[in-house]
Specification:
mainly alpha, 13 helices, 234 residues, 54% helix, 2 domains, Lysozyme
């Protein structure tokens, strides 16, 4: 028996308008849910009602301090919030970017891509991504799913993959949510997906890492500059 996809199932909720036929369909679905799924403490119900819990201050390992990141970004530490440091260190741990070479390359590449932490999302409107089937975008999806995070996550398909990986449905709210809450984490997901740790463990230099990240050598001098900063700091 053919089954609908997760995205198709989500669409039933997305386009729910309380029409009589929709009410009847939902009641029919309820009949077939098991008892655990109907429990008011079930995880899907609490996530749907409340969204993901706010991230508490990190009590995990600190791989990079605020002072170190400020030195790499060449800005005042006062411009960096504590929650940004927590999110960065959580990302480093989650994606095993935990050795000095891995951290240096990750932070130097993300520093270049974000202008030293200044830009969390793509400056262009994103309309150029409309109707991009290779990105999973429909006629109006481009602006909502334009580049977000410190290695710009782009396209509805890639947002949906991150959403599923993190079990965070709010990722599908689009660019603003990812940019503000997951700038490092979204970059780390790309890093993992492209096996960057393996490349660096093999001794890759800035040129080799840049070619994997950029597909060429755009911004190589600036990436090398940030890498040199990382060498001084980490």
């Amino acid at each position: 028996m053919a089954q609908i996809s997760v995205d198709e199932f989500v669409n039933f909720f997305k386009y729910y308008n309380d029409e009589p036929h929709q009410q009847a369909g939902v009641k029919e679905l309820y009949r077939y849910l098991d008892l655990i799924s109907k429990d008011e403490t079930s995880s899907w119900i609490t996530i749907y009602r409340d969204g993901p819990k706010k991230t508490e201050p990190s009590t995990g390992e600190v791989y990079v301090t605020k002072a170190q990141l400020a030195a790499i970004w060449e800005c005042s530490a006062d411009l960096i919030h504590d929650y940004e440091i927590d999110e960065m260190n959580s990302c480093l741990g989650k994606y095993e970017i935990t050795t000095a070479p891995r951290i240096r390359h990750f932070l130097s590449q993300t520093a270049h891509e974000s202008g030293g932490g200044r830009y969390k999302k793509e400056l262009a409107s994103g309309e150029a991504y409309n109707n991009r089937s290779d990105l999973g975008n429909g006629p109006t999806d481009g602006p909502l799913y334009k580049g977000a995070g410190y290695i710009q996550l782009t396209g509805k398909y890639n947002y949906s993959r991150l959403s599923e990986y993190l079990n965070d449905p709010r990722v599908m709210e689009g660019v603003d949510y990812v940019a503000e809450n997951l700038p490092f984490t979204s970059a780390g997901f790309w890093w993992m997906d492209n096996r960057m740790n393996d490349l660096i463990d093999g001794g890759a230099d800035v040129l080799a890492v840049t070619k994997r990240v950029n597909g060429g050598t755009n911004g190589l001098e600036d990436r090398q500059h940030y890498y040199d900063r990382c060498l001084e700091v980490i």
